[in-house]
């Protein structure tokens, strides 16, 4: 009887453990809050939702710890090249961009037409639309990259002002596990336009088709790479981050699917898109309201 009871208790503990949602760092995620309205990224409500999300599977490259990967033989030369390409006026320090923003939407958010023009309409995900038009769950308060601190405009004004920037937009639908990302996004009246649109499934390791771009020139999703307020508040960024350098070579490596470099692929001291860079220091400082970076580019190594 005692042995049977012990087996029963172990079984109950095992079932209880299986019910927990635990991410790749062993953090218990808890129940995923239900999103009932469009929630802007710079709110405590958004922090609560994203902190409970499993953003891509635990086996995904964005969630892989690369500390034990071998160092590239030309790691030092590559980091020296990255630094040399950065203007001296910038102090050659790693800078964290605050306004790659996002919007959380509900499962009932209506799809609206977004027209993909110029650059990459044929590499855009249409979500049931017909080229060049996609159907995306876009809310009226969709933030565009750079807002609010990067511009003196209201959100509505920034949505409709083509400032010549990348103007990324990121819509996250936690209930479906989908993210909808666009590049060169613009609203004219009630109509939405972008140069490219890409949809990613946060429950899948599926990549973009080989050779396809996305809002990111490497074909990456952008949302999983963001350094978020809730992470810095906890004191740990649990995933890889998106690093932008001045020059890349004309080559991409897994998990990238696209490249847009201007340097010959044979010049391997320039990074390829998809290159893995290990920071030897913290990403977030103690002032989480400012996301102050602490590690310069030379404080790291390039991993294979």
DSSP helical segment count = 5
Number of structurally distinct domains: 2
Helicity level, as a percent range? 10-25%
Global structural class: alpha+beta
Largest sheet data: 5 strands, mixed
Task: Name the helix and strand elements from N-terminus to C-terminus, one letter apiece.
Answer: HEHHEEEHEEEEEHEE
The proportion of strand residues reads: 5-15%
The count of β-strands is: 11
Largest sheet: spatial strand order: 1-2-5-6-9
Unreliable spans are: 1-17, 285-299
Termini gap: 55 Å
Estimated radius of gyration: 21 Å
Characterize the overall form: globular
Overall pLDDT metric = 86
Quick gist of this model?
The chain is an alpha+beta fold and 304 residues long. The protein is built from five helices and eleven strands, in the order H-E-H-H-E-E-E-H-E-E-E-E-E-H-E-E.
Task: Describe this protein with a few key phrases.
11 strands, 5 helices, disordered N terminus, five-stranded mixed β-sheet, single chain, four-stranded mixed β-sheet, 2 domains, 16% helix, alpha+beta, 304 residues, globular
Q: What does it look like?
A:
By secondary structure, this protein is α+β, with helices and mostly antiparallel strands. It folds into two domains: 31-61 and 97-226, no CATH class; 64-96 and 227-304, no CATH class. It has helices spanning 2-19, 44-51, 75-85, 155-159, 229-234, and strands at 39-40, 103-104, 112-116, 133-136, 169-173, 178-183, 186-188, 191-194, 196-201, 276-279, 300-303. It has a five-stranded mixed β-sheet with strand order 1-2-5-6-9, with no helix packed on it. Strands 4-3-8-7 form a four-stranded mixed β-sheet, with no helix packed on it. The longest helix is centred in the first third of the chain and has 18 residues, at 2-19. The radius of gyration is 21 Å and the shape is globular.
């Amino acid at each position: 009887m005692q042995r049977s009871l012990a087996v029963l208790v172990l079984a109950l503990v095992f079932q209880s453990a299986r019910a927990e949602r635990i991410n790749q760092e062993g953090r218990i995620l808890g129940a995923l809050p239900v999103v009932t309205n469009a929630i802007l990224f710079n709110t405590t409500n958004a922090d609560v939702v994203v902190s409970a999300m499993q953003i891509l599977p635990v086996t995904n490259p964005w969630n892989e710890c690369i500390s034990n990967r071998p160092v590239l033989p030309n790691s030092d030369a590559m980091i020296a090249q990255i630094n040399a390409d950065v203007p001296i006026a910038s102090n050659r320090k790693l800078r964290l961009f605050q306004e790659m923003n996002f919007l959380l939407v509900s499962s009932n958010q209506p799809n609206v037409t977004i027209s993909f023009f110029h650059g990459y309409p044929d590499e855009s995900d249409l979500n049931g639309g017909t080229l060049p038009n996609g159907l995306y769950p876009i809310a009226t308060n969709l933030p565009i990259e750079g807002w609010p601190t990067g511009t003196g405009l209201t959100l509505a004004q920034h949505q409709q002002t083509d400032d010549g920037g990348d103007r990324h937009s990121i819509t996250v639908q936690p209930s479906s596990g989908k993210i909808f990302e666009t590049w060169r996004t613009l609203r004219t009246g009630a109509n939405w336009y972008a140069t490219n649109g890409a949809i990613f499934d946060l429950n899948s390791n599926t990549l973009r088709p080989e050779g396809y771009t996305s809002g990111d020139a490497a074909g990456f999703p952008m949302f999983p790479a963001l350094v978020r307020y809730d992470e810095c508040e906890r004191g740990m960024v649990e995933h890889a981050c998106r690093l932008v350098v001045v020059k890349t070579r004309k080559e991409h490596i897994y998990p990238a699917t696209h490249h847009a470099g201007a340097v010959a692929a044979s010049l391997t001291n320039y990074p390829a898109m998809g290159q893995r860079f290990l920071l030897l220091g913290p990403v977030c400082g103690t002032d989480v309201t400012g996301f102050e970076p602490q590690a310069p580019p030379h404080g790291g190594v390039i991993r294979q």
